[in-house]
Amino acid sequence: MSDTFFITTAIDYTNGKPHIGHAYEKVLADVLARFQRLAGRPVFFLTGVDQHGQKVQQSAEKQGVNPQEFVDTLTASFVALWDKLDVRYDRWAATTAPSHKDCVRKILQRLHDEGQLYKATRQGYYSVRQEQFLTDKERGEDGQFGPEWGEVVFLEEENYLFRLAEHRDWLLHLLDQNPHLVQPDFRRAELRNAVEKLSGDLTVSRPKARLSWGIEFPFDPDFVTYVWFDALVNYISFAPGYDPAPNADLSEFRRHWPALHLIGKDILIPAHGVYWPIMLKALGFKDSEIPTLLVHGWWNIAGSKMSKSLGNIVDPDVLADRYGPEALRYYLMSDIATGRDADFSEERLVQRFNADLANSLGNLLNRTLNMAQKYRQGVLTAPSQPEHLDLVREALPVEAAAADYRAAFEQHAVHQALEAAFRLVAACNQFIDSQKPWAVAKNPDQAGLLDAILYALADSLRVTAILISPVLPKAARAIFGQLNLDAPFQIEDARRGLLPTGHQLGTPTPVFPRIEPSAPAA
Ligand code: MSP
Q1: Of 82, 235, 347, 447, whose CA is between 20 and 30 Å from 20?
Q2: How far is the CA of 119 from the centre of ligand 1 (A)?
């Protein structure tokens, strides 16, 4: 078993600009990866773009450019956005990369050699938008194919098929034996139902005559690879040390694999939940090497799906420019429960920033540093008297916050981890209100109490900065800077009492200037 936290996201289609759903998933993966780095674990974070397929070919044709030029332009907008949002991945998976195409071809050749592929003529309805054949299962209650399939045409075609159906019982057994493989639980139940109904094999080729923008088959140049088959392979083609040759040395690969795949709810069934584990099985992966799927929900707009036709697509680039990348990261991580849907609201983004960051945390930092400067020239003295130690221990639940935070991250529940961190912040603010350090400062007999209060507040801010660092890396560094501390952050340091007596604090400058709500630009 590998000790690396290997996390991947879905690779985004480059047939349009990145939207808020793409940004959510990449930021969530980045935050989960940063938490593991904070915990001292080796991390490998893979993300990228899905560049082939009919949709791209059609969009490029419409613009009169070649498909590679078309995807290069859009790919650049994804790369720039992840850079702006501080999404720090270890490798970039772009499916037009020669190494990836080579790996896909070798996989096809191997599956062909081993009798996992066969050629057959198929006729039936085909969704151009989803690039797949439809069966009666896809018909709505009225017997028609719904609008989600876009243009549906009748086709009769010869293609290569991959043997799926014969692995149905294996997959059911795998899911039953390894409940953790699909999270949350209700998604595993959905997948299980779908697998029970699995019949038929997967068409993994498209005739070049109607689709040329894909990876050519190694043993039959009249065909290109079905875009989902191509895209799923990214998880191994870009993994360190993978080689599809039957007897390859995979020791480097196994130091990283299996991955945790972070995906949206729409691509669990059938792609990630059915095709992918069966593809891996066909490639000789053992049951213990089948990756885990962490399935997140969707951001909707006022209860509806975001869509081009409704004209309600939220542009994360605009929001990052308007409010700052960290304000956007904080909103995306705090206002949704992992696995569930949420409604996106720019108003909520501003409210949450102002309430949690500008007011609670920002004021705490400002008040603490100002008081420390005013009463002690910024120099801390660690409490020594038992009654002072008891007082701060009772008022400021540092250990409980850190423990709840870690437990939440183990469940990938980032919103709960943030809640735990902000409970500590709230406790600090209440502590200031109840202890009234400005009054204590007037009484020279209470010098020790004042020291204890200032110390506990600064020390709790240090812990808070560590806890928020996966979500707000820049703000955490700024807080550390004002506390006159050096990063790197480590989760082990999220406990009380690590500041030495005599530690000199810095002076406050606002880290979270309040956002004045303005009318969103039309
Ligand atoms: N290219 C495929 C994935 C191939 S993975 C081998 C794809 N691309 S996508 O661009 O349509 O979607 C990328 C990811 O964004 C998916 O995980 C999808 O669920 C997610 N989201 C798309 N819209 C979303 C929201 N409105 N909200 C949250 N995530 C959303 O599917």
Answers
A1: 235
A2: 31
